TrEMBL record:
Entry-linked SMART domains: Dak2
Keywords per UniProt: Glycerol metabolism, Kinase, Transferase
Protein's name according to its UniProt entry: phosphoenolpyruvate--glycerone phosphotransferase
Residue intervals of the DhaL domain: 4-204
Quaternary structure annotation from Swiss-Prot or TrEMBL: Homodimer. The dihydroxyacetone kinase complex is composed of a homodimer of DhaM, a homodimer of DhaK and the subunit DhaL.
Species whose genome carries this gene: Candidatus Egerieimonas intestinavium
EC main group: transferase
GO terms under biological process: glycerol catabolic process
Amino acid sequence: MNAEYLVSFLREAKDIMAENREYLINLDSVVGDGDLGLTMSDGFLAAYEAVTEKGETDAGRLLYQAGKAMSTAVPSTMGTLMASGLMQAGKALKGNTELSPGQVAELFQAYLEGVANRGKAKIGDKTFLDGLAPGVEALKEAVEAGEDLPTASAKAAAAAQKGFEATVGMLAVHGRAATRGEASRKLQDPGAAVAALLMKALEKASR
């Protein structure tokens, strides 16, 4: 796999965010201002357009460029977090022109860390991390067990979806949802839904 694989992933991410724009808007309208679907569809579109047909062969530079483009296009809280994830992944993979399945897992571990560091959140705070972390863990475990990337990414997507569903029951710590206190436990977290969609995009790109 090379940088073209990452372009394919960003294309799938762009498409899946566009397809689920209204779904994300509806989820976010319950706990936020309802703009999440627009932010994610516009943000991943900008990320994809920044790297397509540019011929960049360095995986790290490609991801960093995508993140910078997203941060400019959607400078909202969630847009900045997603851009930070891409840029951190870019730093982790800088200098690589070929990617192993293990490095794809490293990419998403770095993405997770980039979002966590920027947002000052942790797993269990009812955020994007609660969707992505189970997906990353499943991806790493499958790759370490010697499974191919299509199989590993399918397991990652399933785990991320379960992580998103498990946000019901969690107490929100950040954002507008936190103002609801105990009532926030009944709600699904929109950020974790974005994480589940990203893992589905990975699954599609890895087929």
